[in-house]
Design goal:
The protein is α+β, with helices and mostly antiparallel strands. It has a single domain (2-147), classed as Gcn5-related N-acetyltransferase (GNAT) (Aminopeptidase), CATH 3.40.630. 30% of the residues lie in helices and 34% in strands. It has a seven-stranded mixed beta sheet with strand order 1-2-3-4-5-7-6. The protein is globular, with a radius of gyration of 15 Å.
Length: 152
């Protein structure tokens, strides 16, 4: 998988990926998860979105991240269901961690919904430490942080 900055031409693929990836959580959460209603057009124009692209040129996933305070905030990462199970999500998270290091930023922070139990199991395996749980923007979220100082 190649990772590159998203362009306006990727907008539909990103929206479709978000819709397909997060649809399973609607019933659990009781409404659409935040990534399903994100303003991807603005995020793309601000340089916050990168896409994962297979050799065929097909967008298989995306990641939204940006510097925030003393950290890089990983806001959203998704792989389309047809491409899950190939390690692409981990590659996108590792990409964000490399970007933080290259920018001289020592930590990456992220959150997930408390009902997204798959993510709650995943992030600690990727080295993220839970730093708190609270309600934000009407969602019950679990917050994580990881030091990315030193070699990958």
């Amino acid at each position: 998988m190649n990772i590159r900055p998203a362009t306006p031409e990727d907008l539909e693929a990103i929206r479709n990926c978000a819709a397909a990836s997060y649809a399973m959580y609607i019933e659990r959460i009781g409404r659409e998860p935040a990534p399903m209603v994100a303003d991807f057009a603005t995020q793309i124009s601000e340089g916050k979105v990168h896409v994962g692209v297979e050799e065929s040129g097909e967008v298989c996933g995306y990641v939204v991240f940006y510097p925030r305070g003393d950290s890089v905030h990983l806001e959203n990462v998704a792989i389309s269901p047809d491409h899950q199970g190939r390690g692409y999500g981990g590659q996108l998270v590792a990409f964000v961690e490399r970007q933080a290091r290259e920018r001289g930023i020592a930590t990456v922070d992220l959150y997930t919904n408390e009902k997204m139990t798959e993510n709650i199991a995943l992030y600690p395996r990727l080295g993220y430490e839970e730093v708190g749980r609270w309600e934000e923007d009407g969602f019950n979220r679990v917050f994580y942080r990881k030091s990315v100082v030193g070699p990958a």
